[in-house]
């Protein structure tokens, strides 16, 4: 009898454990599926599977409708009772033709794309593993919907719908990454993010100012890094991966390691990645104008121009980088969840290749033009609380501190004076977000935000012959930038087929700068801006049936002038110098987009979105006067004075379209294409092409999946942009473009053919790689200052545990 009682108690305990843990597997491979999201609107409950495909769903008990989603799988809807009847084991069927994606974080709150009128795409960790992007910028590029510009190998500036740089917003774990010195010129800050430590990447196209405030005009790129996973049993959960990768075009040597240690209430994730890149070799077939067959070397107190043995090497472009991440999670019960994250990234110094292409008097313009080490550090505490009270169902508090450090180092050929400009930014942010389901069909998302940036900028002049340094001109004034905001979004499900969403945000931005007139005779010593902005959005999603989705969205956005706009001093192009302008006001954008997606017979999916954005009081660089002068000496050259001004109206319109075809025997085909046209008015009343509106571009893919093998052959391409269609500010940059028959710069069309493959050797080991640019094309993406890689062999090995 005693044994029967013990057996009964044991079975009861097992039953209790089973009742709280679901296991989700791939129906073909029977492998566990990580990052499956389970959600319920009423009550508001959410869970995500860990590396073993398991999640605790005790909070779902009694729920009638649980939506189960994962990118690349068919969405399922089950009740808790149905899951219980299967002993909490669920199998999901793969599908690349979903019209509803997983719960997303690009809106900062967890929502389904079922209910969001804006266009959002997801780049999964599985896709990243196949494509092997070298940087986070390359990661964004594999989507086929984001154009990437590079001025050097250590860089990557995304362009989305005709906007770029400080008109796009970056988010890491829900924290705004943009600072007060994010510039209107090309940015490389995105490379601070480690692709190996990112579990999910989402891109929101169009305005995101209701959620993120200033800068989110063209889109939001949201990176969710590895989340510490708790153990759902009495045994510790230990998972992770270790990998190494080699690429031939730049002799890449990369190593990565991450490990998750989870207990019932505590979990930790540690991640470390190291990259080392030599100078990048470009392709052998293409414009001769892209070849710079020399570099400058210091020899016996002289700068000597050296002719390269291999003219296809782009010298200097080598650099290295290290990233570290540590996360700690404490979840004492189902109501509270505490997560702390530490991120650190540092690059080596690296050459800005496009500046090394500049010539003066028939020889190299610069002996040095380098970026110093680029450092990013973030401490982030995220506290989540589930209450289901009259004020909120869920609350999330994010406290973050970020540290940015960067520098620019330049020296003219055979000039002993080296100019070093360094910037340091401390960025503090507080976000308090709430979710409240007022009834079954209506949900409110609201919150408040405060951001503070402290900007320190320094200049140093060094005589390299004596190694004596003195204070030099800084790039920026000493400044503080503050943003305060309150925002609300209401999501109302009018019917099962139609969801309406509306949002509003009030944002107030303060900027205080103090200028040093020691080196430049500015007619002012300070700038003080105080700008308020009200932005809003209104949109809807209509689903006539399971094969159709129609969406429309109207939205406004703004960008308040930052320290870079108001206070920088730099040589924007040969013969021009940009000076401060304290009399700036915000620019405002008005956007409309309309999208449709249709699945035909579970075999073909067509997705198309059209958009139009109108930008008023656009902050653009125009000719200016300083103390009544339109030209001043700068770095030994008489230069035209320019400044950022509210001097233009601009508009961008375009189409994003995609087709996916499910072919027999595991094959599939897809194409993503992007057309955009941007124009901005000039001082003389004419118009010019917007600088960041890329030419037509896209990617077409033929893929094959079977058992443990995943292969893809893809074609990436960009259309030509003639001299007449180049932006006015680009027409003088002969050092980065090819030259037409008249000697004028233009951007040639190009393509690359690429093969990628991933094979799962065992439960532990994966091998992946491929050949990029199979035909060894010499190509240069539009506005880029460095060519893309020539034929590139990639080999990577990953061990999972």
Automatic annotation (TrEMBL):
Residue intervals passing through the bilayer: none
Membrane topology: Multi-pass membrane protein
Domain TonB-dependent receptor plug intervals: 114-220
Name of a matching Pfam family: Plug
InterPro entries the UniProt entry points to: Beta-barrel_TonB (IPR000531), Beta-barrel_TonB_sf (IPR036942), Plug_dom (IPR012910), Plug_dom_sf (IPR037066), TonB-dep_rcpt-like (IPR039426), TonB_rcpt_CS (IPR010917)
Location in the cell: Cell outer membrane
Keywords: Cell outer membrane, Membrane, Receptor, Signal, TonB box, Transmembrane, Transmembrane beta strand, Transport
Entries under Gene3D superfamilies matching the protein: TonB-dependent receptor, beta-barrel domain (2.40.170.20), TonB-dependent receptor, plug domain (2.170.130.10)
Residues in TonB-dependent receptor-like beta-barrel domain copies: 338-774
CDD domains: ligand_gated_channel (cd01347)
PROSITE patterns noted in UniProt: TONB_DEPENDENT_REC_2 (PS01156), TONB_DEPENDENT_REC_3 (PS52016)
Main location: membrane
Family: Belongs to the TonB-dependent receptor family.
Protein name, as recorded: TonB-dependent receptor
């Amino acid at each position: 009898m005693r044994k029967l009682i013990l057996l009964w108690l044991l079975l009861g305990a097992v039953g209790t454990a089973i009742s709280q843990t679901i296991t989700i597997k791939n129906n073909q491979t029977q492998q566990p599926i990580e990052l499956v999201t389970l959600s319920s609107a009423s009550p508001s409950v959410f869970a995500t599977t860990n590396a073993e495909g398991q999640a605790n769903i005790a909070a779902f008990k009694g729920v009638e409708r649980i939506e189960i989603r994962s990118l690349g799988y068919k969405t399922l809807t089950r009740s808790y009772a149905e899951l219980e009847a299967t002993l909490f084991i669920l199998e999901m069927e793969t599908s690349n033709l979903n019209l509803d994606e997983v719960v997303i974080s690009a809106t900062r709150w967890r929502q389904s794309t079922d209910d969001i009128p804006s266009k959002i795409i997801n780049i999964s960790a599985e896709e990243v593993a196949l494509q092997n992007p070298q940087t986070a910028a390359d990661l964004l590029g594999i989507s086929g919907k984001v154009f990437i510009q590079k001025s050097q190998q250590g860089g990557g500036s995304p362009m989305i719908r005709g906007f770029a740089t400080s008109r796009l917003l970056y988010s890491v774990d829900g924290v705004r990454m943009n600072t007060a010195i994010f510039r209107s010129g090309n940015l490389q800050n995105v490379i601070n993010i480690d692709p190996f430590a990112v579990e999910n990447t989402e891109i929101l196209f169009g305005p995101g100012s209701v959620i993120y405030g200033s800068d989110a005009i063209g889109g939001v790129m949201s990176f969710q890094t590895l989340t510490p996973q708790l153990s759902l049993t009495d045994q510790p959960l230990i998972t992770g991966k270790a990998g190494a990768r080699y690429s031939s075009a730049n002799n890449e040597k990369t190593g990565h390691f991450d490990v998750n240690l989870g207990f019932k209430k505590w979990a930790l994730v540690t991640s470390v990645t190291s990259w080392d890149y030599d100078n990048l070799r470009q392709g052998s077939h293409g414009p001769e104008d892209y070849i710079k067959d020399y570099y400058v070397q210091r020899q016996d107190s002289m700068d000597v121009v050296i002719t390269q043995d291999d003219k296809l090497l782009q010298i200097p472009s080598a650099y290295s980088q290290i990233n570290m991440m540590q996360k700690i999670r404490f979840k004492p019960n189902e109501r509270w969840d505490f997560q702390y994250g530490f991120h650190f990234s540092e690059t080596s110094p690296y050459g800005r290749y496009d500046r090394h292409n500049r010539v003066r008097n028939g020889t190299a313009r610069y002996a040095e033009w380098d970026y110093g080490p680029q450092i990013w550090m973030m401490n982030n505490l995220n506290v989540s609380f589930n209450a289901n009270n009259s004020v909120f169902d869920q609350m999330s508090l994010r406290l973050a501190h970020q540290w940015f450090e960067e520098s620019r180092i330049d020296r003219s050929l055979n000039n002993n004076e080296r100019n070093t400009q360094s910037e340091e930014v401390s960025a503090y942010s507080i976000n308090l977000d709430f979710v409240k389901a007022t009834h079954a069909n209506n949900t409110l998302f609201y919150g408040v935000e405060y951001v503070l940036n402290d900007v320190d900028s320094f200049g140093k002049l060094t005589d390299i012959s004596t190694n004596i340094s003195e204070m030099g001109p800084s790039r920026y004034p000493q400044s503080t930038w503050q943003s305060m905001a309150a925002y609300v979004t209401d999501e109302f499900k009018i019917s099962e087929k139609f969801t309406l969403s509306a949002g509003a945000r009030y944002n107030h931005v303060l900027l205080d700068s103090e200028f040093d007139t020691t080196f430049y005779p500015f007619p002012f010593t300070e700038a003080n801006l105080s700008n308020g902005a009200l932005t809003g959005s209104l949109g809807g999603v209509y689903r006539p049936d399971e094969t159709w989705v129609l969406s429309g969205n109207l939205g406004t956005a703004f960008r308040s002038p930052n320290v870079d706009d108001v206070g920088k001093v730099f040589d924007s192009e040969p013969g021009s110098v940009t000076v401060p302008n304290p009399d700036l006001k915000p620019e405002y954008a008005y956007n409309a987009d309309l999208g449709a997606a249709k699945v035909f017979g579970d075999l073909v999916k067509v997705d198309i979105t059209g958009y139009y954005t109108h930008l008023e009081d656009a902050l653009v660089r125009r000719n200016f006067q300083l103390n009544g002068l339109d030209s001043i000496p700068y770095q030994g050259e008489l230069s035209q004075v320019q400044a950022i001004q509210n001097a233009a109206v601009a508009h961008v319109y375009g189409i994003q379209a995609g087709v996916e075809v499910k072919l027999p025997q595991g094959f599939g085909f897809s194409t993503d294409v992007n057309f955009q046209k941007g124009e901005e008015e000039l001082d003389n009343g004419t118009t010019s092409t917007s600088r960041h509106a890329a030419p037509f571009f896209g990617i077409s893919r033929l893929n094959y999946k079977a058992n443990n093998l995943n292969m893809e052959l893809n074609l990436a391409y960009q259309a030509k942009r003639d001299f007449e269609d180049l932006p006015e500010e680009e027409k003088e940059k002969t050092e980065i473009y090819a030259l037409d028959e008249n000697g004028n710069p233009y951007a040639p069309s190009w393509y690359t053919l690429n093969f990628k493959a991933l094979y799962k050797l065992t439960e532990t080991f994966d091998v992946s790689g491929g050949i990029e640019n199979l035909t060894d094309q010499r190509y240069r993406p539009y506005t880029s200052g460095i060519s893309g890689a020539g034929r590139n062999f990639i080999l990577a090995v990953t061990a999972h545990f």
